[in-house]
Amino acid sequence: MKVFCVAEYRFDELNPLSIELLNLANQVKGDGSSEAVVIGKDVGKYAEELAKYADKVWKIEDDSLENYTPDLYVDVLMQLIEREKPDMILIGNTAQGGEFAPYLAAKLNAPIATDVVGVDVSGGVKVSRYLMQGKLMVDMKLKSTPCVLTIRQGVFKEGAEIGGEIVDAGIKPSKESRRKFISYIEPEVGEVDIAQADIIVSVGRGIEDESNIELAQELADLLGGVVAGSRPVIDNGWLPKDRQVGISGKVVKPKLYLALGISGAFQHVMGMKDSELIIAVNKDPEAPIFGVAHYGVVADLFDVVPELIEKLKELKGA
Amino acid sequence: MKVIVLAKHAPDPESEISVASDGKSVNTSGLVYDINDWDRYAVEEAIRIKEDKGGEVVVVGVGTNCDDTLRKCLAMGADRAIKIPVDTSFDAYQTAEVIKEAIKDEEFDMILAGLMSQDLNNAQVGVLLAAMLDLPIATAVAELNVEDGKVIAKRELEGGYLEEVELPTPCVITVQSGINEPRYVSIMGIKRAKSKEMKEVSISPSISTLEIEKMYLPPVKKAEMIEGDPSQIAEKLIEILKERGLI
Predict the structure, then answer these.
(1) What is the pLDDT of residues A235-255, one digit of tens each?
(2) Inter-chain contact B237–A295, Cβ cutoff 8 Å?
(3) Looking at CB atoms within 10 Å, which of A278, A279, A281, B244 has the fewest?
(4) Between chains, do B165 and A69 touch, taking CB under 8 Å as contact?
């Protein structure tokens, strides 16, 4: 099986997920090949990194490809795919990959599965993925090839170096991009950097109302920690954006991560799973957060947290 | 400015989730349905554009039982609704295909949709539709500014970064949650919605690219569970924190 892996980089760094795509490609290629595709203005250094893990690296270079646009990525990929005829195209499930992958699939009339965590090619292409925010899994068959898969980060970390060749694909964009890149905007810096905190009391949808943030704050103060939150809390404006834990917010590794009323969607878990001690309180026994926590409490946080605050106060007073 | 906005009537993943007896679908009995959370933000954004620039908001729903969600959108301020009474499968191509057919006579400036659905989490329909219509796209938009003949969008990237891009209209925009603060439905809104048009357009999907083999509960390593009444739980948690030298 000939497997294409579309690489991604930003701010001068190759996304490690690009190597994970190649690890997966090497697992499933059989007597075929793993072939990275890297697109940009000057991609030599990325190509060299990718070549360690790929049978072949295709470089597609042009001044107009300096910044990613879905229009031109799809345009040049279509040209290469129609010429080289891969069976499978792997793309990272990222802000960038998640955007152009379905577009590419539709232009190829190819089946697509997004946010894939397992691939089996023993009889056609079968993939596994989560749904219902991590509460269910599904195995499904893609009915034809070529097919497009976007791959979840962190799943295919293991792989060996193979050392392949780097080839200029000789492909140029056939048109101008309709979408124009303007600029990157850096995250705002707030008063507290949660990534530096040893103790984080983190709240999710289960905190129910802005007025209840106080309760988390009181607990955090007693523990000498800071308050952070998951996406719904930030979306509601109950905590500032710089307090968001997750892929689109901050990655934290505190000594204690106390997750209150957080269900544990993947995008959040990737931001806190490496914490030294994770304690989760959630009403829902099926909440995916219990899959990553060291200790779990199935209870209403409004029952448990006030008790915890009382006992911590007693302890401090004593 | 005429905006088409896609709204899915979708089960809340916080409701009771289990696998149906066929082993290939979700058991619907424990599910609570509402407008897909991401689409709620898309509908709000569409209405704000209309309030600012004038024009029309047309909401499109797919599914035999999507009336409640469409009415909610009308009550929020959408002008009319198109209902496609077909239950498409897991396959996002089917949903995109029937929407494309249903809106083919609408001359719109923009299609707005949520980044993904809260139940399937595919994040595909908006982009597939854009590709089928050959329109430019921006996904995961966290801030949107509409100008004459173009839009400026700030897309959410990893690590708190944003990417600012410019697109000509017509285009397709999928929004990230938190882009705005969706309004609540007012009593007046509900009254007004009753006289608004909800047109049914029957279309059957012709594409099928996927086949579900199995649906199941994910195998998880479980945390050590602490049980007891709230006081006992607090006591045990404090013991753990003490052991670790955290207090």
Answers:
(1) 999 999 999 999 999 999 999
(2) yes
(3) B244
(4) yes
- Closest Cβ–Cβ partner in A99, A179, A255 for B246: A255
DSSP letter, residue B1:
-
* Residues sharing a CB contact under 8 Å with residue B22, sequence separation 6 or more, in sequence order: none
Domains (range + CATH), chain A:
2-168 (3.40.50.620), 194-317 (3.40.50.1220)
Q: Per-residue pLDDT averaged across A292-301, rounded?
A: 97
Residues B91-104 pLDDT 10s: 999 999 999 999 99
Q: Look up residue A234 and give its two tokens.
A: 């930030």
Backbone angles phi, psi at B190, to 5 degrees: -65, -40
**Chain A, nearest residue to B17 by Cα:** A135
Q: What is the DSSP letter of A284?
A: -
Check A138 against B214: CB less than 8 A apart: yes
CA distance A165 to chain B (A): 31
- How close is the nearest chain A Cα to the Cα of B42, in Å? 14
Query: pTM of this prediction?
Result: 0.95
| Phi, psi values for residue A194, rounded to 5° | -60, -25
Q: Is A122 on the interface with B (CB under 8 A)?
A: no
What are A105-148's pLDDT values in tens digits? 999 999 999 999 999 999 999 999 999 989 999 999 999 999 99
Cα–Cα distance list, A26 to A14, A152, A275, B228 (Å): 19, 17, 31, 49
pLDDT for residue B219: 82
Q: What architecture is the B2-200 domain classified under in CATH?
A: 3-Layer(aba) Sandwich (3.40)
What's the ipTM? Answer: 0.96
Considering only the beta carbons, identify the residue of A96, A111, A248 that sits closest to B210.
Answer: A111
Look-up of token digits 């891969």 = A86
> What are the chain B neighbours of A280 within 8 Å (beta carbons)?
223
Residue pair B103/B4 in contact (Cβ under 8 Å)? The answer is yes
